[in-house]
Design brief:
It is built from seven helices and 26 strands. With 496 residues, the protein is α+β, with helices and mostly antiparallel strands.
Amino acid sequence: MKRITFAINFILLALLTQAQNPQNLCGISNTQADWLTKYQANPDRYEKSGDPLYVALAIHLVDDIEEIHFPHKSEIYDALCALNEDFEQANIHFYVTHDFNYITDSYYAEPDINRAYELVSNFNTPNKIDIFFVHNFDLPTSVSYPVDHLGIILQNYMLAPHNHHQWTHQMGHFFSLPHTCYGWDLWEQFPDGFDFTQPAPDSINWLPVELVDGTNCTVAGDGFCDTPPDYLANPWICNEDGESSIIQHDPAGVAFRSDGSFFMSYSNDDCQTRFSEEQIAAMRAYIENEDTMFLTTETPLPDISDTPLEQYYPIGGEEALLTDSNTIVLSWEEAENATKYIVQIAPFPSFQSLTWEYYSDTSSLVLSGLEPNEHYFWRVRAVSEWSSCTPYSDISDFRTPTFVSANELEVFRNVVIRPNPVAVGQNMQMQFKAQNKERSSMTILNTQGRVLSQKSINPVIGMQSMAIPTASLAPGIYFLQLQSSKGFHYEKFVVQ
C-alpha cells in the first residue's frame, strides 16, 4: 500500500523557502534527505539491479469548473515522451495505466500548499505515482514540487516543449535527488542574496559548501562527487558553453561557473541534458528499495512503429462523407500495438490554431459539429500506455459538404434500415417514403470512401421497402449513400 506520509518538516521547509525565495518551492523532504545521507555513506548495501525499471503513473488534469481549459491529451503524451527520453539513460521507463482523470473543481484548480496536499491525498491512486496538472498555483512560485510519496503537481505551462525538463526535474526529486545547489536553495542564511564576487562561506544553512577540488564532495552540496559545485538557486540561462554566466568562488577563492547540463540544476530547459552516473545509481536504489510499490512486472507492449500512419479518408481536399446530418467519418491505417489514436483537426495546416482534438479506440472516427462548406486539415497519431513518442501522419485536408437530411431529398423520407447491425450474408431492408418518382441512386461505401456497390432506384410515391444484400461484405462499418437531385444523405450500418 502506498505510503501516505507527509513530512511536517518538509511543510515547514517549504513555507520557509516560500518566504525567503519565492522562486523555489521544490526539493526533497527531510525523510528523503535522511535516506540519501545513509545511501551516500554506503551505496553498496542497497539493492540495485541492472534491469529496466517500469514505473506506473496516473495522470490527473485539474481545472476550474467555471472556466475549463484542460490541456490537450497530445500535450501530455509529448511531455511523457520527453520524460522517458530523459530517463532512458537511467533505464527507467514510465507508462500510463489508464485514461486520464479529469477533476473539475474550483477548490483545487489553483491550490495553495494546504489544498495541494488535500488534492494528492483525496485523489491518490494505489501503487501509481499520481501526476497532477493544474492551471496555476495559488502560491508565489513558478515551479511545482513533489508531495512526499503521494504525487507530483505540475503547472500546465510545463507541458510546453521548452519546459519539458521540468517534469524530469520533479521526478528526480521524487526519487530522492536534491538540487545540485543543495543548501543554497533555502537562502535562509542570505535572504538578500549573496555577492558571488566574494569567496563562499565554509557552510550554508548548516551544510558544508562544496569545494572545486572535490575534497569534500561526499559531505558537501548534493553529496555526489560527479556533480561539480553549484551555488545558483534561482533560474539561470546558460552561455554558449552550457555554463552559467555568473562566476562563483568557492570557500578557497577558486573561481568557477555552474554546469547547466544537469536536470537537477536551475539552468534553463534548453541547457539540461543529463543526470550524473551517481545520481542515476541513487535514483535506481531509491526505487528498488523505497518505491517498489510503483514498479510493475508486466511485460510492456512493444513500441509502436515510428512510421507515420497512412490516412485513408478523406484526403486530397475531397468532400467528406456524411454519416448523418452534420456528421462525417475519418479513417486511417491501423497501427500494431496501438491502444488509442489522437486525431487533430484545424482550419490551417500549421495546426497552431487547433480546432478539435479527438481520442479514438479504433482506426476510424465519426464526428459532428463541423461547419458546412468549410476547408479542414487533419492528422492522426497512434499511442499506447507504453508508447508516447510516436509521429503524426502527414497532413491531409477535406471539405465539408452542404449537410442535407433525408427528408430534404424528397425522394427519401423517413428512412429506416434494419436490422442494424446485420449478420454477414443476411439482407437488410430499407424502408422510406417517396414524395416523387425522381430517379435516384443508392451506393454502399466502406470507411475509406471506396464504392463497393451501386444501384439505381425508380421509386413510387408513398411508403416502400427494398432489400439490400450484404453477402459480399466482410464484417465492418459501412455507409449507405442515398442521392437525388437535392444532394446526398448517408446512413451508417454494421455487418457482423
